[in-house]
Fold each of these.
Amino acid sequence: MLPSRLVEALHRFNAAHPWDHNAHHHPWLLRQLPRRPRTALDVGCGSGDLVRLLARRADRVVGVDADPGILVKAQQLTDPDAPVTYTLAAAPEGLPPGPYDVITCVAVLHHLPFAATLTRLRQELAPGGTLVVVGCARDETAVERMLGLVSLPLNVLTGWVKNRGRAAAHRPVSMTAPTREPKMTFADITREARHLLPGARLRRRLFWRYTLVWRAPGDPAGH
């Protein structure tokens, strides 16, 4: 755990120099996907940033969130002609049925029952489909704590670079969704994920995130 004064100072800096740690991973996430998927589902879509990126490639995209207010904002920000549907639902039980060629889940899984959610996502994935998770885990090992410490100056530098020379109205959007401290360690997540999703690839990342990529057995779409 970081000292409380350091955490408070970090929060103050991020408020003055906002940027979205989750959106930072979007370019990487898109590189994991097929060129032209037919259908995509984004679980916990928030204001729809990733949904709109997916809509540039997929024939149909569904964004799901349990917050009605954020879905109103997502709809306002989305081109009415885009192939996008926003659905108010709680995961995993309320997810609209697939199958989907692509399922994404960014900084949401630690808010949900882990095994039940991964099982449902696996069920809704089309044969050959791709699941990509960007998640949060509780630091446990010395290496993980070191990654967190390395992320601190990089977080400050990134926030400064992204906001340099910009008026407040034109600065990047910061994360606004409620946050919850993750309970599972990366080791716990890796063990359960590989049991539920054989062959899943997991990796610890900077900025307090990990990634998971799994491709369902079968012939993938978009190739």
Note: Confidence is low (pLDDT under 50) at residues 149-178.
Amino acid sequence: MTNNINTLVLSNLPYISYLNDNGDISDELTGKIGLYAIFNYDKTLEYVGYSRNLLLSLKQHLIRQPDKCYWLKYHVIERPSRSILEEIKQKWLEENGSLPSGNGEEESMWTQPIDTKTTMNDEDKQQYNSLDELGKIKLLKKVARRYEEIIKNQLDERGVKFEVRFNPKLKEDGLLDLKT
């Protein structure tokens, strides 16, 4: 694949279904370094990023934003440099004409672990404030597991077949992120 950034135009790359017929993301992206653009169901650009492991990053995004990951375009780079990756990313963002929300006000929702504390109901919040440290950890784990089930149900509805395992240590802080 070419690394000529002047000819690497996002609109020239084909749309690829986020999930293949087997309910997985293409294994050929395992360990590959490159850039990617994620599109919603209507093929509206949601996020542009780059990664040292395309498959892992795409799985993380699907977990974090399952309702916004339907199509993707990507380009693998054999000899990457952060400056080249950043330059191509900026070109793709400019080509879009407007900044996608995933690269703007919603960026943390695409790039950071899911903070399940924001899903706590009034009862959870009241209970949390009355607990000691160990009790708070237990409650945060319970809230995280509850939200984990919601995510897994959304992924099941999308037809995802790959195993989804969250980092158990992060659950103690009320966070969900894929175990790597």
Note: The helical segments are 54-64, 82-96, 107-111, 122-129, 133-158, 168-171.
Amino acid sequence: MAGMTTEERSEPAVTAAERPMLEGWLDYHRDTLGLKCVGLTDAQLRQASVPPSQLSLLGLVRHMAEVERHWFRNVMADEGSKPLYYTDEDEDGDFHPTDADTWEKDGAVWRAEVEAAREIAARHGLDDLSAGRSSRGEQFNLRWIYTHMIEEYARHNGHADLVRERIDGATGD
């Protein structure tokens, strides 16, 4: 069965300072994606349930592992980490889980990327610029990366809502 580490999530503080507010919202959205996977089998998690889209919950988890890795390891820290799931031959490989892909394996990878992201972010202030650069040579401050990550999770959590409802009717925040 799936789930990040808990079947609950904490509401972000409504009066926090900027950094705890950003981190609270990012963790809230990370937990939301995990909650969308709770109670489903690997086959259900791999199910592309809104044809013709190939989007699945496991694909979303794999995608967010790639996104965490990209923005924190490769942009903020400039580690040069290789992609986890996509290749030149399949640029959307994160969205294409096979029967061999499982929550146990891919969920663990996602959780590890979240933990690495937290560790990297803890070493930086919100105004610190990334060591890595965009293809246009831009650097990003941590504040921008946090804001982008919140947006990325929020958008994909909307997709996860629809996919989960189509699988078993479950709805929720």
Note: The domain at 18-168 is CATH 1.20.120.450 (Four Helix Bundle (Hemerythrin (Met), subunit A)).
